[in-house]
């Protein structure tokens, strides 16, 4: 239950405070500062929300670009296939060139030896079998590599 005497006492105190012009001005000034502060906080909050939306849009755009780039990039198996094809083309071109040089230098008494690694991951080793000598003649024991046969 409300204590009526206390309520009357508070209202009397309030009336006494409001009688003084300085107190009313101070109260009005505090209220104005409160409104100014609230306005600045609202403006700052709106700016933060705007920046967050802007960054979210930039992140989404970046995600879309990343997904598009991932679609355009060849996967590991496809890249390996491309490398092997290009390596075989390059090998054939080099072998043809060295065969041509070997024929020209044969008259001078030079022997051109070229090797291919035994590592099957290199892409040249045992590519189709007809570029290398067979048997012991096709294997260099010191370098553990296959020797190209330019005569075939």
UniProtKB/TrEMBL annotation:
Q: Which GO terms describe its biological process?
A: regulation of chromosome segregation
Q: What is this protein called?
A: Uncharacterized protein
Coiled-coil portions: 45-72
InterPro entries reported for this sequence: SPC24-like (IPR044951)
Q: Tell me the superkingdom of the source.
A: Eukaryota
Record gene name: LOC107898969
Q: What UniProt keywords apply to this chain's record, in alphabetical order?
A: Coiled coil
